[in-house]
């Protein structure tokens, strides 16, 4: 498949010397839904904001549809739409004015028919004259998507699109994402719900401590996860398993650097995301992840 977004050796360090991205290599295929999975603070939002040109990076290269995002900033900006986590909207404006204004920011001429079709696709047409402050949280998220798609981008970034929403709204958002893919939009979303990645993604990448540690087709990843054993290789050895990790019933090998986690794929949650979060909270640096058949 065609590489639509290509990331080579990208490193991002903040002024406080925190390395948020560490030699990231990643390719996104045209027309796919790619889920970036990882615990809070793993680097998901930093990576998305870097690709979108919101954050600078000190080394590496990012190409979007063969355009360098630093050299060809205008071209790449026109290709990209981003839906942030935060509900930043002009609350005293109407839905219609909000979305049309966003289109104008990209230098696009008015196209009321396109905006009408977009609002209908997102079930917002009957709300077009409502002010944003009158809408529910779920409807506001739909408006954010409409704003991000107002200039007809080819790639849509969704940063934690279903964070802090109820199950019903989460399923509605999943349906919207699937419809957008059918319309030819390439979608990259971040999430810390492995269930979300399983539901809508074509491929899944796992990021932790600013490094991509696994990328695989969803079906292969689910098969791996179905094998019930996750091996976690640490950069540095540990003598004992921290008390906060005891609830995961981990085992440690003779090298003191590899933890083994056994989980039940039939359960509602595998616990993997929580485990990775706890490992990060303990200050333990993850080197690699692998899965194998439970004996």
UniProtKB/TrEMBL annotation:
InterPro entries found in the cross-reference section: AAA+_ATPase, ABC_transporter-like_ATP-bd, ABC_transporter-like_CS, ABC_transporter_ATP-binding, P-loop_NTPase
Lineage: unclassified sequences, metagenomes, ecological metagenomes
Pfam families: ABC_tran
Keyword line: ATP-binding, Nucleotide-binding, Transport
Source species: marine metagenome
GO MF annotation: an example: ATP hydrolysis activity
The name this protein goes by in its record: ABC transporter domain-containing protein
Domain ABC transporter: residue ranges: 5-234
